[in-house]
Amino acid sequence: MRSPTTDSTSVPKRRLHLALSALFALSLWQVAAMMIGQAILLPSPLMVAARLLTIWQVPGCFQAILFTFSRIVSGFLLALLLGTVFGCLAGRFPLVRILLAPFAASIKTVPVASFIVICLIWFSTQQLTIFISFLIVFPVIYLNVLQGIKSADLALLETCYVFAIPWHRRVLYLWLPQLRPFLLSACSVGLGLAWKAGIAAEIIGIPAGSIGRMFYDAKLYLNTTDLIAWTVIVVVISILFEKAFVRLLQAFFHRLEKL
Questions:
Q1: Same domain, 62 and 133
Q2: Which of 55, 138, 159, 163 is deepest in the core (most CB within 10 A)?
């Protein structure tokens, strides 16, 4: 078991390593930009940083961020809800698991671009981001929850039934602690996939007033600096939301343990 002193000293070390790796990556980027010498192909980190300070003045910038954020998060939350429900049902009833197996396998293997093009026939571009984010995240949540249900302690389950423990107590003290690591892992992975798939859907569908439209316009006018600046914005927002959501989920489970 690690001592508190070891844990407290490891945090600054991890931050130092992260800072060094970021500095190394930026240095390579700067050297590559200087060797190429054409901002249209690869702008320098300083050019992108300067653009990040002024990109907020672009008309519709904040509206585009809000548009994309709300739809990607909506798709993720829908996938979290339905993936958890169907994962629990599949763990309880083998027939549900058998029926959903081909769908989960297909979604995992079919390229995202194929789903986007097909879904453009069924949905408007305004709805596309929500559905694609949901579609890509659903199997991640579903399979993790299913694995959590299948890995439950059978002896403990039998004990609960023998002593006729009420279902709500079984959910609170058995199933939720059992699913905790699986849900946290699924959410961490699923949020990253939701942003990747959602932005890809917007770049292909080009809904008005979205970050995907900003990407498309920057590409259309060969504005590589804006392309990278918007990429940085998406990465920062996705990381911040992932950390905030996972912490909220951890706090939720921690609160349940005290009930």
A1: yes
A2: 138
